[in-house]
Amino acid sequence: MNKLFKILGLKPRLSREAIEAYLNRLPDVIQVDWVRNDDFIVGEVKAGEHTFMTQGKDAQDFIDMVNDGVVMINKIPKNYREIILKTYIPSFDIQKLIQT
Fold first, then answer.
1. Angle, alpha carbons 88-89-95 (nearest 5°)
2. Which of 35, 38, 40, 66 has the fewest CB atoms within 10 Å, i.e. is most exposed?
3. pLDDT value, residue 11
4. Containing structural domain, residue 64
5. Is residue 1 part of a domain?
6. 94 vs 75, more confident
7. 3-state secondary structure of 15
């Protein structure tokens, strides 16, 4: 069935129950410690019981990588990631600090 959706360029219908279940997998708190390392921002992410490292070229890329890592480590299927992706949204002040 997934091959047919790919061939026709269609997206499968998303289940409300599955969305809720996947949202419940995500941690309530995401802690990010980061440093600027030459041209990159490198950080350690603690998301619930999971810890991982990531990096980005700028603040937005770094935030996107944190979000990608959180949904991947919590085994969110690809077709649900677009809906659930924004799990880590730092405050404006923190975003300014990361950027500089």
1. 125
2. 38
3. 57
4. 14-99
5. no
6. 75
7. coil
Question: Residue 72 sits in a domain of what CATH number?
Answer: 3.30.160
**Could you tell me the pTM of the whole model?**
0.77
| φ/ψ of residue 95, rounded to 5 | -60, -40
Distances (CA, A) of 89 to 25, 65, 82, 92, 93: 17, 12, 15, 9, 11
pLDDT class of 5 with cuts at 50, 70, 90: very low
36 beta partners: 41
List, for residues 61-92, the tens digit of each pLDDT value. 999 999 999 999 999 888 888 777 666 778 88
- Domain assignment present for residue 90? The answer is yes
Residue of 77, 80, 71 whose CA lies nearest to 26: 71
The tally of domains found in the chain comes to 1
| 82 token code pair | 């677009």
Report which residue type is found at 27.
P
